[in-house]
Write a structure and sequence with these properties.
15 helices, single chain, alpha/beta, Glycosyltransferase family 4 protein, three-stranded parallel β-sheet, 2 domains, Rossmann fold, globular
Length: 406
């Protein structure tokens, strides 16, 4: 436990995908370390699966969960909503306001700035998680959002990035860093390193994630079609996820004659979805530090992923195995290589898995984030043994799974 417990409030717009997984693990680690944690998020979004993650987190949140309607894009109504939220956040007397994503970051910096004149002065921390950094700086929408980010930068006390790529993108699109910053990788729990065995009737490939063009769901469908033509046989696939373009992608699969080849399951726990396929495919056009890639590698699943965002940082010296984004034909070629030699694909995953066990762990993530809060607050950090324990558990799991493999 840290010598000086903190009152921490996390804020994000939509409690979905990798961001809610990140906050779930981070908030639980902070609560376990003796800090009081709360969450503010949108009340109108989130699949049943995403909301189940939120429900599991609630018992660990001493400062509770505050939910209200947040629109995706910034509007004048956000100022009214922030004014209403201000009283609730003020009553929590936070030491740290941590915003996740563009909208969460906007609320944190506005409300945090209004609280600066009070006795308790919370530090305002912002984690982009991709967000506005995914916008093209040469397009009108990108120029607007990046200008807003630059304006808000002066009301920010610290920046936390989940990848070196994300930090570089911020410097390139928003401007030079003028406040303290740190890169803290997303981390896995010890159980995430347990091997997953595909079901006997598993599909050839599985996609797990949001159903959005940004995530390359359309490229995955087109790659399945390409493989069907190339091999002359039915290629089976699972698409596990929800998103605003689900109907569009279902129509695309039907149009290509793949309705009986591709099964849309809705959102599922990652490891459950992994077992439904023999290879995980991550065809994203843009990413920050995707949990699905970490989870797939941790589980030992063969994986085909694109060279975007922080994914090369996960693969490290093995990054040459990644696929250039935006092309279904290149994706199909990599997927066909896995079909031709599945054992080789599993062996390659095992190599990457061993390298991430000491770096991408949830206890390490939690400890580094708390020490950053302490830095901003001017509080000497207290080192815990939790991260060391996690590494020992991961090493034990690796040794056990290696024996199983032999």
């Amino acid at each position: 436990m840290n010598s000086q417990p903190l009152r921490i409030v996390h804020c994000l717009r939509s409690p979905i995908g990798g961001t809610i997984r990140h906050i779930h693990d981070l908030a639980k680690a902070q609560a376990a370390a003796g800090h009081e944690v709360g969450l503010v998020c949108d009340s109108s979004t989130g699949s049943a699966f995403d909301l189940s993650i939120l429900d599991r987190l609630r018992p660990h949140l001493a400062l509770g969960v505050t939910r209200f309607a947040m629109r995706r894009h910034l509007t004048v109504q956000d100022i009214i909503a922030a004014a209403r939220l201000y009283g609730s956040v003020r009553a929590l007397a936070p030491d740290v306001l941590h915003g996740h994503g563009a909208k969460g970051g906007a609320y944190v910096r506005l409300i945090g700035s209004l609280l600066r004149g009070r006795k308790r002065r919370p530090v305002r921390v912002y984690s982009p998680h991709g967000g506005s950094l995914h916008y093209d700086p040469n397009r009108c929408e990108g120029r607007i959002y990046h200008a807003i980010e630059r304006l808000q930068n002066r009301f920010t006390d610290g920046l936390l990035f989940v990848a070196d790529y994300e930090k570089a993108a911020y410097e390139s699109k928003i401007g030079p860093l003028t406040v303290p910053s740190r890169v803290v990788y997303n981390g896995l729990l010890s159980e995430d390193f347990e091997p997953v065995a595909p079901h006997a009737n598993a599909a050839d490939f599985v996609y797990v994630g949001m159903l959005r063009q940004l995530k390359g769901t359309d490229l995955f469908i087109d790659a399945i079609y390409d493989l069907t033509l190339q091999t002359g046989r039915k290629i089976s696939a699972i698409i596990a996820g929800e998103g605003p373009q689900r109907e569009e992608f279902e129509a695309r699969a039907a149009q290509l004659g793949l309705a009986d080849c591709i099964t849309f399951t809705g959102a599922l726990p990652a490891r459950r979805a992994f077992a439904m396929g023999r290879c995980v495919v991550v065809p994203s056009r843009a990413e920050a530090m995707p949990y699905v890639v970490l989870e797939a590698i941790g589980s030992g699943m063969p994986i085909v992923a694109t060279r975007v965002g922080g994914i090369p940082e996960i693969f490290g010296v093995h990054a040459d195995r990644l696929v250039d984004s935006g092309s279904s034909s290149r994706l199909a070629s990599a997927m066909r290589a896995v079909m031709a030699s599945p054992e080789r694909a599993r062996a390659q995953t095992a190599e990457v898995r061993q390298s991430i066990m000491s770096t991408f762990t949830a206890p390490r993530m939690g400890e580094l984030v708390i020490s950053f809060y302490h830095q901003l607050l001017g509080i000497p950090a207290v080192t815990s043994t939790e991260a060391t324990s996690s590494l020992a558990q991961s090493a034990s799991l690796l040794a056990r799974s290696s024996k199983q493999g032999s």
